[in-house]
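Phosphonate ABC transporter ATP-binding protein, pasting as requested.
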Amino acid sequence: MTTPSPALGPMVTGAGVPVIAIDGLRKSFGPRTIIERLDLSVPAGESLALIGANGTGKSTLLRMIVRLAEADQGRLSVLGETVGDLRGSALKRFRARVGVVFQKHNLVARLSALSNVVHGVQARRSGPRSWAQSLAPAAVRDEAMACLEAVGLADKALQRADSLSGGQSQRVAIARMLMQRPELVLADEPDASLDPRAGREIMELLFRLTRDKGLTLVFVSHHMAHALRFSDRIVGLGGGTIALDRRAGHCTEAELAAFFEEPGGDTAPQEEPVRAPAPVFA
Ligand SMILES: Nc1ncnc2c1ncn2[C@@H]1O[C@H](COP(=O)(O)OP(=O)(O)OP(=O)(O)O)[C@@H](O)[C@H]1O
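Structure tokens follow.
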């Protein structure tokens, strides 16, 4: 019998309760309305690809989910919490439950891959240095090694981060995120700035790791092949709202390409979002 890796944390989601429930979300920056009205429900365990032209608000939406950006209107319920109500330590505890992977991995260049992953445990605890005080260093190190193994980089554990390739660095960032034992994973273009093979491998890894544990994954990608292959569902933003919502298995790359022919991104007038095409629901 194999013991489940401690690197892949617990799944805490009630059956039938959406991990993300968004109702009437609106967001402007100054006079520019980026998201006019957005409703979205993401069930537990779903892998959702968020697509759309540049400037349609994909990153802003991910940021609002963890309250790195404030919604102007609407309700965001994530992992059972009303995000807009969270303050102080409650907000910290909530953020500790959400693993985030960015296009830029932000590793500490002079530290080893392993040390970078060990630092991921800080995101798991709230309060100053509580992680260091409450966890045995050997246990933390073992878990960090398990996380590196999970991303296929155990042999690079002692290598400095600044000597790793872009793809390897992104794997370390994923291992660091796993160290947090997240219940929900958000990934903002994790496959950007990588060559086609490395980008595909990163997406494969994220998809497999989250799927194996039944975690919910929401990722942004401009690679339609990745959206189709590594998601259950593809949601397209355009015109300040959801302009496309399809099961990945019912969608083709040509249909997605056609979606991008519609207006909606940074090409839209600045004051008012362009009306989206009629939504296409599977
Ligand atoms: N803090 C901010 N202040 C002002 N404008 C912002 C801010 N953050 C984002 N924007 C603007 O909001 C719009 C949506 O940005 P966002 O990064 O969410 O788009 P995106 O869909 O992720 O784009 P891309 O595909 O290019 O990454 C853009 O026009 C951007 O310039």
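Note for the archive: The chain has two domains: 20-97+183-276, 109-180.
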